[in-house]
Amino acid sequence: MLRAEEIHAAKGKLGVLLVGLGAVSTTFVAGVEAIKKGQSEPIGSVSQMATIRLGKRTENRSPLIKDFVPLAKLEDIEFLAWDIFEADAYEAALKAGVLEKTEIDTLEQELRKLKPHKAVFSKDYVKKLDGQHIKHGANKMDLAEQLMADIAAFKAEKQLDRMVMAWAASTEVYLEADAVHLTLDSFEQAMRENHPAIAPSMIYAYAALQMGIPFLNGAPNLNLEVPALRALAQAKKVPVGGKDFKTGQTLMKTIIAPGLKARMIGVNGWFSTNILGNRDGEVLDDPESFKTKEVSKLSVLESILEQEKYPHLYGDLFHKVRINYYPPRGDNKESWDNIDIIGWMGYPMQIKINFLCRDSILAAPVLLDLILFIDLAQRCEMYGVQEWLSFFWKSPMTAPGLQPENDLFIQQTKLKNTLRYMMKEDMITHLGLEYYDQM
């Protein structure tokens, strides 16, 4: 790992390769373009708006993160996208219905430039969608090679220095690890044989990693965690991250649950339900895609509350998650949580949370931060799973055999301490020993 003055500079242009040009991607692209034009502020972006404390409190050193570590500039970003519908980013943003038309119109010139390439897609993996703007090939390896050709042409056209690929498309049907995922040889042979265990998101990940491009898995799909793709990331020395952008209801869980555990308050029931009407909601109306999302959402509480360590407080936890497709709501998701908690002498209490959020508005700054931070990791010559980015993921990946950390506040500490370490600053423990040293 390179540190401080050793880190490769963020020179030249950064290509952002977006898989899917739906609500999240168009909101992200529109936001970046609006910020570049001075029409908006990057609210929700840790990389752009958060500060980081350095040294002792008495030193009063708290620069913005973007001024502390050498991140790529928004002005240097160029976009490429793939989608199963051929609408450009302007038309896709209007269709998504996240942003007001009057705001989208001010960015029409910029958004019209982003026209998606044909996507790698099969209804076998996302049964509720039926786009026709798709690639055809002899086999899945051929499709991966077509993606790599798209990327190579884009790099040459825009004269890019570096690239990052992010999956911002739909949740695929639930898949379990298969024998073909064990080695790179068996994985590539399975691609040539059109094996059903090779989903489209795996094809994109394979194409990115083969070209030395960091890959971010913004959905709960099975891909980066399979041994073959982990080995490829290591061999190519590429940083990767996933999975599933942490927004909405799960964000609330990673805020509330750590507080309850910190105060040793018991929890014996947590019921969560959602309504949303965007393309994501339509896809999740299919039970097989919902199972993929459900596994991701259910894993959060169990890891935070550590049931095996605190069986009296959390051993009987009943956790239920529901997602309901409701078209009138569009991207404006609404979630309800009922939390049954236990206090002193076993007395029951309840917490009710009603979160009316805008899913893509929450996801867009997360996508920006992940892109900028994983590009930084690449320039630090860090590779493999980037656990320090778990702050942004619903179901964070880890090294094999380790449990993920889902406590938002521990994740934040790990994120900022990693940045401090990169820049050869002391990591912060908040012990406050400088006070006692004066006594």
Give a description of the structure:
With 439 residues, the protein is α/β, with parallel strands linked by helices. It has two domains: 305 residues, NAD(P)-binding Rossmann-like Domain (Rossmann fold, 3-Layer(aba) Sandwich); 109 residues, 2-Layer Sandwich (Dihydrodipicolinate Reductase, domain 2), CATH 3.30.360.10. Helices cover 40% and strands 16% of the residues. The protein is built from 17 helices and eleven strands. Strand 9 and strand 10 form a beta hairpin.
Task: Give a quick summary of the entry.
By secondary structure, this protein is α/β, with parallel strands linked by helices. It contains 17 helices and eleven strands.
Q: Count the strands?
A: 11
Task: Compute the separation of the termini in Å.
Answer: 39 Å
Q: Estimate the strand proportion.
A: 15-25%
CATH superfamily of the largest domain: NAD(P)-binding Rossmann-like Domain
**Total of DSSP H or I helical runs spanning 4+ residues:** 17
The coarse silhouette is globular
Mean pLDDT: 95
Which stretches of 5+ consecutive residues score pLDDT under 50? none
Could you give the topology of this structure?
Blueprint: E1 13-19, H1 23-36, H2 46-49, H3 65-68, E2 77-83, H4 89-96, H5 101-105, H6 108-112, E3 117-118, H7 140-158, E4 160-167, H8 184-192, H9 200-210, E5 215-217, H10 227-236, E6 239-242, H11 248-262, E7 266-276, H12 279-284, H13 287-305, H14 311-314, E8 318-325, E9 334-342, E10 348-356, H15 359-379, E11 384-385, H16 408-422, H17 433-437
Parallel strand pairs: 1-2, 1-4, 2-3, 4-5, 5-6, 6-11, 7-8
Antiparallel strand pairs: 7-9, 9-10
Helix pairs in contact: 1-4, 1-15, 7-9, 8-10, 9-10, 11-13
